[in-house]
């Protein structure tokens, strides 16, 4: 009976040791996954920064700086406003005359839905 008890003790000890090894292996795997994830994230960030730098170089080379774009937009806006003001000044009198004609010349008519009473 003692040898049987000793065998059970050995089995329990072996099972405990195996469980510890499995737990340690899981911890190592989790550490490796976390490390791989961190490395991948760092690589992604490095790639993103490189692409941003390339884009800014391209933008500066082909489109000009942001200040140049802002100045161009401002210049175009001033030109359009000036053109609109000229158009208003040229047509202002004609529009006023036409509005006055429409106000003065009233032609009373029955609406088509109104019934004529006899």
UniProtKB/TrEMBL annotation:
Coiled-coil zones: 8-57
Gene Ontology CC, one term: vacuolar proton-transporting V-type ATPase, V1 domain
Keywords in alphabetical order: Coiled coil, Hydrogen ion transport, Ion transport, Transport
Pfam name, any one: V-ATPase_G
UniProt key word Coiled coil: yes
Biological processes annotated in GO: synaptic vesicle lumen acidification
UniProt GO molecular function: ATP hydrolysis activity; proton-transporting ATPase activity, rotational mechanism
Subunit structure, interactors included: V-ATPase is a heteromultimeric enzyme made up of two complexes: the ATP-hydrolytic V1 complex and the proton translocation V0 complex.
Family statement drawn from the similarity comment of this UniProt entry: Belongs to the V-ATPase G subunit family.
Function, as annotated: Subunit of the V1 complex of vacuolar(H+)-ATPase (V-ATPase), a multisubunit enzyme composed of a peripheral complex (V1) that hydrolyzes ATP and a membrane integral complex (V0) that translocates protons. V-ATPase is responsible for acidifying and maintaining the pH of intracellular compartments and in some cell types, is targeted to the plasma membrane, where it is responsible for acidifying the extracellular environment.
Protein name (database record): V-type proton ATPase subunit G
Native source species: Homarus americanus (American lobster)
């Amino acid at each position: 009976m003692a040898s049987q008890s000793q065998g059970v003790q050995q089995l329990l000890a072996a099972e405990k040791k195996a469980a510890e090894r499995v737990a340690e292996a899981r911890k190592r795997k989790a550490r490796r996954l976390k490390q791989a994830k961190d490395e991948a994230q760092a690589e992604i960030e490095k790639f993103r920064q490189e692409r941003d730098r390339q884009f800014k170089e391209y933008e500066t080379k082909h489109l000009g700086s942001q200040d140049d774009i802002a100045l161009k937009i401002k210049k175009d806006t001033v030109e359009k406003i000036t053109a609109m003001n000229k158009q208003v000044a040229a047509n202002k009198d004609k529009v006023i005359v036409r509005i006055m004609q429409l106000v003065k010349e009233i032609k009373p008519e029955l609406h088509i839905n109104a019934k004529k009473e006899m």
